[in-house]
Amino acid sequence: MNQARTAIPPDAPAPITDLKGVGPKLADRLARIGVHTVQDLLFHLPLRYQDRTRVVPIGSLRPNQEAVVVGTVDHTEVVLRRKRMLLAYLSDGTGAILLRFFHFSRAQQEGLARGTRLLCFGEARTGAKGLEMVHPEYRRLAPDEDPAADEALTPIYPTTEGLHQIGLRKLSDQALEVIETLPDLLPEALVDRAGLPTLHEALRYVHRPPPDANVSQLLDGRHPAQQRLAFEELVAHNLSLTRMRARADRQPAPVIDDGEALVGQFQAALPFALTGAQRRVIDEIRHDLAAGHPMLRLVQGDVGSGKTVVAASACLFAVASGYQAAVMAPTEILAEQHYAAFRQWLEPLGIGVAWLSGKQKAAARRAMQEKVAGGDARVVVGTHALFQGEVAFHDLGLVVIDEQHRFGVHQRMALREKGANDGRHPHQLIMTATPIPRTLAMTAYADLDYSVIDELPPGRTPIKTVALADSRRDEVVARVAAACAQGRQAYWVCTLIEESEALQAQAAEDTYAQLAEALPQLAIDLVHGRMKPAEKEDVMQRFKAGEVDLLVATTVIEVGVDVPNASLMVIENAERLGLAQLHQLRGRVGRGTAESSCVLMYHPPLSQTARKRLQAMRETTDGFEIARIDLELRGPGEVLGTRQTGLMQFRIADLLRDQALLPRVQRTAERLLHDHPEHVDPLIRRWVGEAVQFGNVG
Ligand code: ADP
Ligand code: MG
User: Which of 5, 205, 356, 423 is deepest in the core (most CB within 10 A)?
Assistant: First the structure.
C-alpha cells in the first residue's frame, strides 16, 4: 500500500497576512468569517452568483430577481414620508421601475435628472406601485454609450461587517495565484472521481466562472466544478463524524448488563404486548449498553409507534445495573407527560422518579435536585434544564433524548461531556419521529447507530384527513359538537406565524372564548405556553381523564402528547405550518381504537407549496412518505433542523441536491480511512475546521 500513497506537501498553510494589503485589522475581520490562512480563502466559496452578463428588459423583471437594467429617467422627486427619500422613475420602452434612495446627496439628486440614461443593478421587489429597486448600484451612461455588460458571472462571497465584496474578490485573486501550493487530497489515483475535475480546476472555476460558463448549471450548484467540491466537502464531513464516533468508541462507559427481569416485569404489567419492532429495538439497545463503550443510537419511529415504552425499558436496564437514567424532552408539556407516565410505570416497581424543568419554583427544583444528586431518584425526567448549571447526577448511566430531531452533532457531544462521570461517558439514546431517507441519515448522522421502529401497534384505525377553507368554519364547529356528543374528545389547534408566545396565547384565548360561546353544551378548556406548568398539567390531566371534551391549544401540544380517546383534531390556518409539524400534530389523534379524523382549515388563497402540503396530508399518514415529500418541498437543511443548530452547515454541498453523490462519498471515506489515513486530517481541517473536532462547542 505504501508506495501508492501520494506525497502531501508539508502542512504549513500560509498566514493570511502574507497577502498584500492584509494587516492585523483586516486579518481580524477575516478571522470572523473563519479565514485565517491563504488556503482558507481558497475554500471561502461564493454563496451564489450575480448575473450581470446581460441587460434585462424592465418589462420582463420578476419580483426578487437580481438584474442589470438600462433605461431613461422619466421623473425624479424628493418625498417626505416617515423619512425623506429620493424617488426616480426609470423606463426602457418595455416597462418602468421605481428606484428608491433613503440616503442621497444633492449632487446625486441632480445627477438623476429627467432624461438621464442609467445602467442599474439591483434586486427588483414588489412595492406599493409595482416593482422597485432600493438603493441599486448605478452608473450614468452617455446618450449613445453601449452599455457593456460584465463578461462573466459575479461571485458573491459570505462576508461580515467592514468587508466588502470587491475587497474579498481582490483577496481571492491573490490566493488564486498561489493555488498550485494546495494539495489535491482526492487525486484520481486514489479515488474514483467519476470524471469530475481536479481540485485546482474546480476552485478556479467556482471563484471565477469563465464567460462561456453554463449559467443555469452554475446558479443551481450542479456544475461539475461545484460537484467536485461538494463531493470533497461531503467526504470531509463524513470523515469528521466517523472519527468523532471512533473517539467515542474508545471512551469507557458504564457496563449495563443487568435488567432482563426488571424489564420483563415492567412489560408484563403493560395493558398491551410490545410489537415485534419494539422488541427488536429494545434488544439492540440492550446489546449496546453492555458493550463497555458509550451507546450512540438514533431510534426513528413514526408518530404513535410507541417510542416511550422503548425509552422506559432502556432506563430500566440502567437502573437494574445500578445507574441513573435521564430522559430529556423538548417541551414542558411533553416532559410533564413523560413524568406522569414514568411514575405510573416505575413507582410500582419501587423506582424513584424525579422531574426538573426551567419553570419549576426554586424550592421544588432544589428538592428535586437533591434527590438527583443523592441518588434517590433513579430516573430523572425533564426539559433541557436537566443539563444546565447546578444539576449534579449521582451516577448517570444513560441519557434518553426524546423528539430531538433538531439536535445537532455539537449538542449531542456537549451533552455527553456534561454527563461524564469519572471519565465515563453516559450512553445516549436519541428518539425521533422525523424519519429521513436512509442515505441521508447515514450522512447526517454518520456518528450514530440507527434503529427503526417500522411497525405501528395493532388495532389503530387510519385517520381521515380533510382540508376545508375557513369560510366553512361553522360546519367544522358543528362537526366538533357532533363528535363530542358521541363521547369523543377533540383538539382545536390555533396557529400563528409569530414566534411570540404572548401573541399565540392571545389567539388561543380568543378562539377559546368564541368556541365556548358557540358550544355551551361542551366542557371546553385551554392550554398554551404562557400558562404556569401546574395549570398546564392540570388541564392535560383533566383532558386525559375525559373531563374536558374539547381542548383549545397552541402548537405546544405538537409533540408527544398522548390521549388515546381524543379522535378529532382541527388545525386552524393549517397552511402556515410545515409538513413535519402538521404530521406531528395530527399524530395526537388516531392513538386509540376509535375512528379518527383531522380537519385542516385554511385561509385561501393557498400558495402552491401550501396546496402541496395539504394534499400530501390528505393522501398519506405514513411518516416516511411525508418526510420524503417534505424534503422535496423544503430541502434537507430545514428537515434536519440544521439551520437552527449549525449542524452540517455546508459551504457548497446540499444533501438533497447532491444525494446522488452520497454512496460514492461513503465509499471514498472508507477507502481513505483504511488506505490513506494521512489524508484524513487535512481534509477535515480544510472543510470542517478545528472547532467541530472536539465536540464541546455550544
Ligand atoms: P410515540 O412513538 O409517538 O412516542 P407513544 O410512545 O406516545 O408513541 O405511544 C403511543 C400510544 O401507543 C401510547 O398510548 C402507548 O401507550 C401506546 N402503545 C405503545 N406501544 C404499544 C403496543 N405495543 N400496543 C398497543 N399500544 C401501544
Ligand atoms: Mg413520543
Answer: 356
